[in-house]
Amino acid sequence: MQTPLHVAVTADVNAATVVSILLAHHANVDAVDGEGNTSLHVAVQHGNESVVQLLVDAGADLGIENQDNLTPLALSEKLGLNGVQAILRQPRRPSDSELVAAVEAGDVATLRVLLDCRGNLNATDETGQTLLHLAIRGNAQDVFAMLLSANDIDKSKINVQGDSPLVMAIKLGHRSFAKMIFAAVHEPTLYVPMSELLNEADKPLGCGGVGTVRKASWRGRSVAIKTGSRSADAEDSLEKEIRALKTCPSPYLLQLFAVTPSPNVRLVLEYMDGGDLRQYLDKKRDNMAVPIEYSALEVAWVIANALADLHHAGLLHRDLKSSNVLLSSTNYIKVADLGLTRADASTMTKGVGTFFWMAPEVQLCGAKYGASADIYSFGVILTELDTFQAPYAELNETVTPWYVMAQVAAGKLRPNLRDYCPKWLRKLAEACMAHDPNERPSAHDIVEQLQCQLQCNDMDPLSTRSLLAPTINCTNCGTPQPFLSCRCSVCAIPAESVARKFEDLRARIAVAKDRGVAIDTTVPCFACSAPNDVAADTCSECNYVANDEDRLRIFVAIVQYAQGSKKPAVLRRLPSLMTTDMVCPVCKVSHLVTDAKCSTCSTPAPPAAAKLEALLWRIAVPQPAIAIDVTYPCSVCETPAQLKDVVCFVCEEELASDEVKVEDLCRRIESIAKLPQVA
């Protein structure tokens, strides 16, 4: 019998396109028809060289013989197809799994041989990690350098978590990898006419003393356009920012793509869709859902590296604050707003920056300061990461900024940390906010300290920072915790409410879907198997009500399944309510209600109490000529009790467990299902 792939290779038009689509959807390339021909045999018969190449590259078995005892090569020789013979005689193209194995083993020699044999540079493993991602995770620098030097490799391809290799390298704390790949993908700043900037939004992304930032489109990508106000100071600020970003290209700083010419200078900047760090911390402070969780450590890591790169280039930021740290679902975390940067020197202008983030020495008349002033501002941001509060939020509203500045300058005031602040964060923040600039660590020192902290972290940083991470940060200590945990494993504070967790996860999934991550949030009703959105608490058909804990458990399982599966799940409803089967809400395959886990995807089954509730709901649906006993006898006094009862209402003895009741009820349903159906 011919498969769709057999039929596709015979098409006169667009055969290669259709074959490519079928292969992408895991069509069996070696399936045979009634005459023993594989799709490769059929492609040879039609002399379609492009399709033959596609099938060979897909790993078609060249040794299969048809009923005439002919392999594809023998068939091409018989037909005199020289071009097809050349394709079939070329060295076998390595499989993606061979390339993955070589990268994971750090085997440079084998990888070079595989690539010389036309190995797929953009191969992925079973979990969607590209070869570059795997080299970064394995800390295989030689392998990474070889891959990066290849012309045809996609250096920006995202993995299933939505992270590019550059973002992954930053998240894992691999500075050398981040530097290498940034150098490979970084685009030099262009000078472009105003006519290239399209669709500028009326509502600005932000406004400041020197200008306005709006979202726009440029050369097919979303960008942020920064426009200066009509003042000499604004023009000077934009020019400083341009010089700084061109002098110090860094993966930790907001990227400058292009500049429009004078007199209306505009900066075409990287667009960050997550707003700024202060906005994010405000949401955390107010117990609002956020689409992506950022730990204090990872934010500190990016800012410290940005400062290290700036200071190494001889530049100071001079306006570092939480609102100048931008967040993105694709570009991660970036330090922005370099309009006040200038070369490091002993004498600077007084009053730059924002008051509450200023170092004490900056607030003095005739201030002399250097890179250590940026370090103080970094320390203030660390206090925000710990408390979620803006600096000095605990002070009385009547206290003026001038009073705060005077107290800070005198060494009598600085931002607070919580009593239960993580030790590493407290130690670093206090060192950075030392009153004496000479006692503060350098940016390089901070990077080394944070590198050690990353290595000491017993959790894989990548698994706690992606959109699909099954964790949520503790609101008290910031430690990532499994979504289903009842309390923090570090500080023992009770976890967020189920409703809050659910909303947080929904916000993440919405962003993931916008980025093209395929997540099916349709789930079967536990009672009738009708399709419903996971967010629905009541079935649209049978009105079965699922509790919040069960819905959250299912939602988390769906997200975890989406990370490891490349095949879409297809929901098939149960043929009848009189069944002891249930449909797995994750993989959509049915299995027995009594199973402890799904036999297909191994997702743990619902608790016995939920199973019992669903079975009783099924039985309650009016069905002609069907009556099932829903009582259970007390083992002591034998008084019939309702299946949902926990203790006997007569003798007050504890009744059988829900697990036992589920098994008993399933036997009753099965016995009824075997009876002849009444017309």
TrEMBL record:
UniProt keyword annotations, A-Z: ANK repeat, Kinase, Transferase
Family: Belongs to the protein kinase superfamily. TKL Ser/Thr protein kinase family.
Residue ranges of every copy of the Protein kinase domain listed in the record: 199-454
Name of the protein: Protein kinase
GO MF, any single term: protein serine/threonine kinase activity
Start and stop residues of the ANK repeats: 1-34, 35-67
Lineage: Eukaryota, Sar, Stramenopiles, Oomycota, Saprolegniomycetes
